[in-house]
C-alpha cells in the first residue's frame, strides 16, 4: 500500500484525505499543529470505513516523524489572512510554516513527491523546493486542475451536458492571471467553438477567473475546499498509480515556455516521479502574452520572498 502524508488537517487537507480514502488509494497520515485535530478527524474517517467501503489506514498526529517513508506528501498547512495583516505578513508566516515542513519532508520522506497547495501557490512551492533540495520534478503545485475543473463545469452547465465530457485546460498562475486555452476546449471530442459563441465562452472564463472569489463571497470566512481537494486527490491518484495523466499544474520551469527558475501552471504528465514531462504547446500571441503576465506576477512574488529574512 502506498503512503500519503497530508500536512494541514483543515478544510482542504481533511477533504483531500476523505477523497483519497474513498478511492482506497493509500494509507494516510494527517499532520497538523493543532493538538487533537488530526487525531479526531482521522478517527472519524475510520469510523465511516465500513459504510463507505474503504480499507486504508488513517492516522492523525502532531509529529512530522510519522510521515516517514511517505510516497506522496500533500502540503495544505497555513493560516488565512487576518484583519490588519497584509499579503507580505501572510507570505512571511506561510513561507515559514512551509520551510519547517519542507525540512521535515527532506528528513523523513526523502523520496516523496510533494504536491504543494497552500497559497501563494507558486511561491510556497518554491520555498518547498528550495528547502527540501529535491529534484525539481518531485515538487509540483496544484492550481491548474482546479481552475480547469471550474471552467469545465461552467461549460457543462451552460450546454446541459455531462461534466466529464468537457475537456479544457487552464494554464498560468492561479486566479487573476490564469490563462484559459479556449481554442483547445472540447466537448465529447467536438471543438467548443462549434457549440458556444465566443462571447458566452468569455463570460464563462470570467466566472472561472473569479471562481474562488465567488465562493469566498458566500462563505465570508474561509475559502473553497471541495473542488480544491478533489483536484489534489486526482493528482495524488496519478502519482500513486503512475498514471501519467496529462494535466495542468505548477511545475518548476527550466527554460520551458521561455521561463527559468519559477513555478508556473503548464501542461504536464504526472506520474510516480512527479512531473514526468512538461508539455510545450504552441501558443497564440494572445495566450503567450497572458502567460508572460502570469510569469511576471510570479517573479514579483519571488522578489518579495527573497526580500524576507526567513
Ligand atoms: P484551513 O485554515 O482550513 O487549514 C489550514 C490548516 O493548517 C489548519 O488546520 C491549521 O491548524 C494548519 N496549520 C497551521 N500552521 C501549521 C503548521 N505549522 N503545521 C501544520 N499545520 C499547520 O485552510 P484550508 O481552507 O484548508 O486551506 C489551506 C491552504 O490551501 C491555504 O493556504 C489556502 O489558501 C490554500 N488553497 C489553495 C488552493 C489552490 O488552488 N492551490 C485552493 C484552496 C485553498
Structural commentary:
Helix 4 runs parallel beside helix 5, helix 6 (144-159) packs across helix 7 and helix 6 (144-159) crosses helix 9 (226-240). A hairpin with a 2-residue loop joins strand 13 (260-271) and strand 14 (274-278). It is built from 10 helices and 14 strands. Helix content is 44%, strand content 21%. The chain starts with a strand and ends with a helix. It is globular. It has helices at residues 11-22, 37-47, 49-52, 87-108, 121-132, 144-159, 198-209, 211-219, 226-240, 285-307; strands at 3-7, 27-31, 58-61, 72-75, 113-116, 139-141, 166-167, 170-172, 178-180, 186-187, 190-191, 245-254, 260-271, 274-278. The strands form 4 sheets. A 6-stranded parallel β-sheet has the order 3-2-1-4-5-6, sandwiched between helices. Strands 7-10-11 form a 3-stranded antiparallel β-sheet, covered by helices on one side. It is of the alpha/beta class. Bound molecules: nicotinamide-adenine-dinucleotide (NAD). Residues 7-13, 31-34, 37, 76-80, 97, 117-119, 121, 142-143, 146, 174, 222-225, 228 line the site of nicotinamide-adenine-dinucleotide (NAD).
Instruction: Give the averaged pLDDT, no decimals.
Output: 95
- Distance from N terminus to C terminus (CA atoms, Å) equals 37 Å
Bound molecules: nicotinamide-adenine-dinucleotide
* Radius of gyration using CA atoms only: 19 Å
Strand percentage: 15-25%
- The total count of strands amounts to 14
Overall helicity:
40-55%
Tell me the strand order in the biggest sheet: 3-2-1-4-5-6
- Low-confidence stretches at least 5 residues in length (pLDDT < 50)? none
Q: What count of helical segments does DSSP give?
A: 10
Order of helices and strands: EHEHHEEHEHEHEEEEEHHHEEEH
Characterize the largest beta sheet: strand count, sense, and whether it forms a barrel.
6 strands, parallel
Shape call: globular
The structure class reads alpha/beta
Amino acid at each position: 500500500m502506498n503512503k500519503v502524508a497530508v500536512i494541514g488537517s483543515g478544510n482542504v487537507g481533511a477533504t483531500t484525505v476523505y477523497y483519497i480514502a474513498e478511492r482506497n488509494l493509500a494509507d494516510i497520515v494527517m499532520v497538523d499543529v493543532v493538538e487533537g485535530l488530526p487525531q479526531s478527524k482521522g478517527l472519524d474517517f475510520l469510523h465511516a470505513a465500513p459504510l463507505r467501503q474503504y480499507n486504508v489506514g488513517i492516522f492523525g498526529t502532531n509529529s512530522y516523524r510519522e510521515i516517514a517513508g511517505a510516497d506522496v506528501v500533500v502540503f495544505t498547512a497555513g493560516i488565512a489572512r487576518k484583519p490588519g495583516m497584509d499579503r507580505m505578513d501572510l507570505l512571511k508566516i506561510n513561507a515559514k510554516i512551509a520551510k519547517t515542513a519542507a525540512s521535515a519532508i527532506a528528513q523523513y520522506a526523502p523520496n516523496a513527491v510533494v504536491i504543494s497547495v497552500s497559497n501563494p501557490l507558486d511561491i510556497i512551492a518554491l520555498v518547498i523546493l528550495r528547502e527540501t533540495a529535491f529534484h525539481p520534478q518531485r515538487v509540483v503545485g496544484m492550481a491548474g486542475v482546479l481552475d480547469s475543473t471550474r471552467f469545465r463545469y461552467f461549460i457543462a452547465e451552460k450546454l446541459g451536458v455531462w461534466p466529464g465530457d468537457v475537456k479544457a485546460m487552464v494554464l498560468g498562475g492561479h486566479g487573476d492571471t490564469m490563462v484559459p486555452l479556449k481554442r483547445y476546449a472540447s466537448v465529447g471530442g467536438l471543438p467548443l467553438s462549434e457549440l458556444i459563441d465566443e462571447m458566452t465562452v468569455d463570460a464563462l472564463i470570467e466566472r472561472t477567473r473569479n471562481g474562488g472569489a465567488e465562493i469566498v463571497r458566500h462563505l465570508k470566512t474561509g475559502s473553497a475546499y471541495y473542488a480544491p481537494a478533489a483536484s489534489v486527490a486526482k493528482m495524488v491518484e496519478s502519482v500513486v498509480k503512475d498514471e501519467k495523466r496529462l494535466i495542468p499544474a505548477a511545475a518548476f520551469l527550466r527554460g520551458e515556455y521561455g521561463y527559468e527558475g519559477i513555478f508556473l501552471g503548464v501542461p504536464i504528465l504526472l506520474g510516480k516521479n512527479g512531473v514526468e514531462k512538461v508539455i510545450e504547446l504552441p501558443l497564440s500571441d494572445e495566450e503567450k502574452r497572458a502567460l508572460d503576465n502570469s510569469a511576471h506576477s510570479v517573479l514579483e512574488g519571488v522578489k518579495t520572498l527573497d526580500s524576507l529574512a526567513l
